Amino acid sequence: MKRRNFLKACLIGGTTIAMGKTNKGWASGSFEGYPESMGVLVDTTRCIGCRSCEAACNKEQKLPEPDTSFDDKSVFEEPRRPTAKAYTVVNQYEKEKPGGPVYRKVQCNHCNEPACLTSCFVNAYTKTKEGAVIYNSKVCVGCRNCMIACPFNVPGYDYESVTNPVIKKCILCYDTRLKVGKPPACVDICPQEALTFGHRADLIKIAHERIRSNPDRYLDHVYGEKEVGGTSWLYLSGTEFDKIGFDPSLSNDPIISNVKDFLGMVPMVLSIWPALFSGIHLLSKHESGGEGHDTESKEEEP
Amino acid sequence: MSSYKHLIVAALSLGAISVFTPLAAQCAAVPDSVTLNQNGTLYKPFDFNHAKHIQQLKECAGCHHHTTGTLVLDPDCARCHQNSSPTAVVSCKGCHSAQPFSPETLAEKHADKQRYHKDKMGLKGAMHQNCIGCHQKEGAGPVGCQECHTRTEAGEAFNSSSRLGAKPAHAKKH
């Protein structure tokens, strides 16, 4: 009966491991981000669509030269998304409206609980204490799960290098600026101070204060304060957020909440299922008696 | 020029009643022209026609908020600054920092929990919003970058693609 004992042990052991792992996941609660996290507040009512931020990002991150100059306003005809060659883009909305046009800068929002990081099985992503979500191309295998996971469609994939295809996205100028306390290049160059750099906690207060003192100018919502568990980039707008390219359907729960119950099941599946199905298989074989493989082979042997 | 003279008289009289006498001299020295963007690298310095703006605006507080002898116009500011005396410094850079996001400024702001004007704009933002904002509102005056500023060579290189009509981006890597 050694076999039965072995199966029992497998079941008990597997369940213990599974419960141990999953309890951690279920009890994780909400994470507010690092207390000293920095961030950028984007005031879309101030942006004039000069594209200086795009030019500054291009130079700071040593990205390839653009196909047309940064003065070229024809890029506003179609909404763009960040790519491997442009970590940030400015899009134009509400062109026909009397108050318009409204411009909105798009880049990595540096989530408190990044979906790219969650989805990455080689840990290529790191959320630093300064708030930046950075990326290690050395361990990246190019699976592009992060591109699918990102709720803001941010990471771009550099297809052009044959030997080292990598994910590319805004890193909040982490290496060259943020690490030494300096604001990102886009913030530094913005002529209108549409971008405000500071501690994320302070920026949230500043944003609400701007809404309070100018209720006619702003909607009473700071996009990124709570969305997907909070992001380091925060947005103020005078126009409905869905009209300027934001996804209003995103919940306040971080993306990991959608999958953590499922992820909790993985160890259970890995440990219990083999034992369970082996057990079922063996039982069915046992019950079937003389009609199993053993009988057949016995018949053939002599 | 009558408004200009009026301004000087107003400034002088305010200065005279103020205990801070050197103010009179400072207020009187209203420049006709101010050179802006002196430290810029991407755009050349340019002369802002102060005299013309005084003639057209008439209210100093339209640009210089609680300064230069005119009463505070913004009702939000007036709650506290209704009776504020004119400040000694009237230039934008007197209050608005050229480095609003330097580590020192941010640390100071973060530490001082009681600071009221936490959201004070930097120099560049304040000037651009003042100029462009008013030009947009009045429907007069330049609003585009190069309508005021002339680019330097560095500025041209910074903004333009040097590959105009040349090989495309992907051809360069190999």
What labels describe this entry?
heterodimer, A: about 300 residues, alpha+beta, Alpha-Beta Plaits, two-stranded antiparallel ribbon, 9 strands, B: about 170 residues, mainly alpha, Cytochrome C3, two-stranded antiparallel sheet, about 45% helix, disordered N terminus, disordered C terminus
Q: What can you tell me about this protein's structure?
A:
The complex is a heterodimer of chains A (302) and B (174). Helix content of chain A is 34%, strand content 12%. Chain A has 302 residues and is of the alpha+beta class. Chain A has 2 domains: 3-23 and 257-287; 38-253, Alpha-Beta Plaits (2-Layer Sandwich). In chain A, the strands form 4 sheets. In chain A, strands 8-1-9 form a 3-stranded mixed beta sheet, covered by helices on one side. A two-stranded antiparallel sheet of chain A has the order 2-3. Chain A has a two-stranded antiparallel ribbon with strand order 4-5. In chain A, β4 (125-127) and β5 (133-135) form a beta hairpin. In chain A, α1 (2-26) packs antiparallel against α7. Chain A starts with a helix and ends with a helix. Chain B is mainly α and 174 residues long. Helices cover 43% and strands 5% of the residues of chain B. The longest helix of chain B has 16 residues, at 2-17. Chain B has 8 helices and 2 strands; from the N terminus they run ααββαααααα. Chain B has a domain at 37-157: Cytochrome C3, CATH 3.90.10.10. Chain B has a two-stranded antiparallel sheet. In chain B, α1 (2-17) runs antiparallel to α2. Classes of the chains: A alpha+beta (302), B mainly alpha (174).
